[in-house]
Amino acid sequence: MTFVVLATEPGDPTAELEYSAGTTLLDRLLGQLAALKVADVRIVARPRAAEVLRKNGTDHGYEVIESADVAGDLLEIGRLARAKGEIALAHGDLVVSDELLARLLRDRGTTAVTAKQPVTGTRPAVRISGRRVVSAGSRHHQVTDPDAVFRGLIKVVEADALADVCERLTMLVDMLPEVEPVRRLGRAREQDLAVFVDTTARDELDRAVAQHDVLATTAPAGSDAAALVLVGLVRSGVRVAARNVDVLVCERALTQQQADAARAAVEAVDEDKVRLDAAVKADDGWFTTYFVSSYSKYLARWAARRGLTPNAVTCISMGTAAIAALWFAEGTRLGLVVGAILLYVAFVFDCVDGQVARYTRQYSTLGAWLDATFDRAKEYLAYAGLAIGYGVTHSGDVWGLACAVIILQTCRHMVDFSFAVHKGSLPPAPIRELPLDVPDDALLDPPPARHAAPRKGLGMLAVRASAALERIPGARWGKKIVILPIGERFALIALTAAFFDARVTFLALLVWGGLAAAYTLSGRILRSLA
Question: What is the pLDDT of residues 254-289, one digit of tens each?
Fold first, then answer.
């Protein structure tokens, strides 16, 4: 990947503004890229800045490209995209949190850093729908009813599309008139409600930057090639994901006062805590959320700092579950209690392995396969141990019940996986393409809601009823509990085994699992019809 730094603001703030004593904003950004092992860094700079920066170019390992204007900036970006492939763009005066920069560089698709905040005109406006930028603005392109701003940091994986956009913009940019950045229609859009959620962080509020009113109060004086690139990509139909800054920081500092405020905002955030919190799944079940994840993330950090890999933790979980099954096979009350405790510990480690992977950003196909396979193996080993133990201490056996539970769970897993694959295979809704020389985005604007015919039928009725339940306090957890996810299932096995016996465990799993299967299957059929 090639990282292009735009040192193009008049007055050259990137070479003069200090982040800390002896360290300029540009020095800090280059240091961050070096820490993230970004080897190919190019700086596009105006002649005065280029002369200053070239003196240190060899020592710092980056190439300085001189450009006279925004057309030259776009030409160089397009040339690099054509030659190098994946490109990331950022302004040299950008102050960004280490964690946010790392997340963006590891995104698999084209992603722009945005912030859901009031649009003031000092930063390029955007409109977001379903976590995607559907309209983007610049000094020459207007946005209708914007709900966020672009923060000057974007990563593009569609290199050919980027090169084409830059070539078209290079020819057009000098002829484009300046326009008002915002067009207000005052029309509420249903899709804007509760859809802007960062997949790696739960809090949408821009708390860190909001503490410093001086930030984002000065509009850039120079041309914004990054904003033009974003406009071109969106108007060409490229899917651009919107990554919210959450509590992290991503701000252009155009004065020393803003640079000082940005540094204070960065230092006010415990990035390790943000990263650790993001390692915990936001949509886990009730039991996992309150009885495991409330402390397992600290185990994950402890394991990561001692060099344990996610796959190693997965194997520890599997080994613990096997020992639990051996205790279950004893059939005694002590064996059932110890087995129940060990099964709970195995499930804790099952959560920890994913949290270690997300905290350390160690993802692998092998790890995903091991996690899914061992989840089934741990559960079925527990069933086998319980059935053996019951036969040891009772005159009869419960192998018939154990097999029935295994068959039920296998069928549920097949339905779950096939439904998930089908959902993932649906193509995303396309964005309408719009010429780059059209100043406003009227052709991108969705039709008024009153003209859209409401969808009817039993499927839509079920979807609306499910959405209504989400607004009732506690109902969301009820919906999660009733489907008997893996956390609740392991808890049910452990508790019934510890306080009763294997027959009660299997009967409870059959009754609750049967209700859960009926609920999920009927719900998915209705959703498919909708």
Answer: 889 999 999 999 999 999 999 999 999 888 899 999
CATH architecture, domain defined by 279-425+455-529: Up-down Bundle (1.20)
CA distance 479 to 516: 10
Which of 409, 380, 412, 411 is closest to 509 using CA atoms?
409
Residue 297, classed as helix, strand or coil, is: helix
Residues in the chain: 530
CATH 3.40.640.10 at 2-277, yes or no: no
Tokens of 225: 């090639």
pLDDT digits (tens, 9 = 90+) for 111-142: 999 988 778 778 899 999 888 999 999 999 99
Distance of CA 485 to the CA centre of its chain: 23
| Residue 504: C-alpha distances to residues 82, 500, 515, 518 (Å) | 65, 6, 17, 21
Residue with the two structure tokens 């559960």: 379
Q: Is 17 helix (H, G, I), strand (E, B) or coil?
A: coil
CATH 1.20.120.1760 location in the chain: 279-425+455-529
**pTM, to two decimals:** 0.85
Which part of the chain has CATH 3.90.550.10?
2-277
Sign (positive or negative) of CA dihedral 311, 366, 424, 430: positive
Give the rounded distance of the alpha carbon of 95 from its chain centre. Answer: 21
The DSSP bridge partners found for residue 156 are: 87
Q: What is the pLDDT of the chain when averaged over all its residues?
A: 86
